Amino acid sequence: PLERQLNHLTEWTQEMQAEHIVSPEGIQASLQIAKVYLETERYSELSALLRETLVSAWTLRTLPPEKIAQPEEKVFPKQREKMDRELGKLGSMEGASGLPECFYQLTNLRNDVQHGAFRNSARSAKKVRQELPRSLETIRAWLTPSLFLNISNHPHEKWNTAQKEAVHALGFEEIQDLEGGFPQVDPGATTQEVEELAKQVVRQVAEQCPGGAFVAGEYGLALSLVAQLQKAGIPCYSTATHRKTEETLQPDGSTHKKVRYEFVRWRPYPIVWR
Hints:
- The protein has helices at 3-14, 24-39, 43-62, 76-91, 98-114, 125-143, 161-169, 191-206, 219-231, and strands at residues 147-151, 174-177, 212-215, 236-249, 255-268.
- Helix 2 packs antiparallel against helix 3 and helix 2 (24-39) runs antiparallel to helix 6 (125-143).
- It has a 5-stranded mixed beta sheet with strand order 2-1-3-4-5.
- The protein contains 9 helices and 5 strands.
- The protein is globular and about 85 Å long.
C-alpha cells in the first residue's frame, strides 16, 4: 500500500542529488534541499547552505571547469577559502551588485542565525523568518540561468534561428534586450566617465538577474562592462562569426562591396576583471 508514496519519495529525493557538489547539478540540488529546510523551519542549516551554495556558484562562474576542485580533493580547502574570501571582499565594496552583494547580505543574516542573536544589532527571530525566504528566492533567481540579456544595439528579434538556438543550448530559456540598448559613448568622455557609465548599466542589469549576457559595442565601455558584470557573477559572451565579402563590378567600372557576418557560436569572454 505504500509503494506509490515511496516511489514518489524516491523521485522527489532524486532532485536533491548530484555527482559533484560544485557543479550546475550540485547548485540545483542544494536549492532543492534549501527549500525543504525552509519548509521545516531549519533556519540554521538553511542560512549556512545558501551561503555555501553562493560560494559554489561563484567558483563555477570564475574558474575554468578543469580547475574546479571537489570536497574530496586535496586542493579543495584552499580553493574554497580563496573563493569565500574573494566573494566577501567584493560584496563589501561600495556599489557591489549581483552575487557578491547577495553573498555579503546573506553572510550577515547567517551570522545572526548561527550566533544565536549574540551580535550587536542582530535581527529578531521574526525578521529572520521574513528575510530567509526572500533570500532563497533572490538566490534562486540568480542561480537559475533562465534569462540571457542582450546588451548591444542588435535587437534579438533580428537574430537568426541558429543564434537563438545557440542561446538555448547554453541553458537559457529567455532572451531579452537591455532597455535602451548599448549606451552611446561621448567620444570626449574620459576613462573614468566611461567606467561610471558602466556602473550605471551594471546596476540596471542586476535588477533583471540574468544568468548571462551578450556584450557588444564601443570598445572601452564594452571592456568595462564585461569586467564589472563578471565581478557581479554574470558570465559574458561575444559572437564568433564568419565574415563573408561579396564584390560586384558596377557598369561604371567601380566595385560594390557587400559584407555579411554569419553567426557560428557564442564565445565566453575571458576573465578580465582580475
